[in-house]
């Protein structure tokens, strides 16, 4: 009794109601994944900006002929940009696998119990989680592409690279969705193999 209200800071009650959007499976999935989505998007966008800014230096440097083989193009700038797009797609695919892995850790801990108590099937819960991850992956690729385009446009003076790199990164969405689908299948049929 004597410790009640003895804090230096005033005790404040939280909100008595939540927005209606948190009551759906998709709303809950977004709320669960938003910090992961925001942190991965910010980190990849900063990295893509730096990679894009390196484009002009690559063009001006005296590079060995083997770089044309590595970038699969006689035009070093275009080869570098396509390589950078593929490289970023690998990271977004890694994000999608991590999002599925986090579901396994929530399922094995007690964090999923309040959701499991709701009238929501495991299939609906998984579909909502995978849908949010898929939409986030596509959005992440677009934002990372724009970020790389801003860096490349700033370095080269070619402003069209902003839009071009956004579209180029969106070309990787099907590949990322395949990885996401495989991770979700593994989670559904052999969850111990994908758990952390």
Characterization of this structure:
- The chain has helices at 25-53, 55-60, 66-70, 76-108, 113-116, 122-156, 160-170, 173-189, 191-194.
- Helices cover 73% and strands 0% of the residues.
- It has 196 residues and is an all-alpha fold.
Helix-strand blueprint:
Elements: H1 25-53, H2 55-60, H3 66-70, H4 76-108, H5 113-116, H6 122-156, H7 160-170, H8 173-189, H9 191-194
Helix pairs in contact: 1-4, 1-6, 4-6, 4-8, 6-7, 6-8
The low-pLDDT segments are none
Treating each run of at least 4 consecutive H or I residues as one helix, how many helices? 9
Beta-strand content estimate: under 5%
Helix content: over 70%
Name the average pLDDT. Answer: 81
Write down the overall geometry.
Answer: elongated
Structural class: mainly alpha
| N- and C-termini, Cα separation | 43 Å
Counted beta strands: 0
Radius of gyration: 22 Å
Tell me about the biggest sheet? Answer: none
Encode the helix/strand succession as letters: HHHHHHHHH
Compact description:
By secondary structure, the chain is mainly alpha-helical. The longest helix has 35 residues.
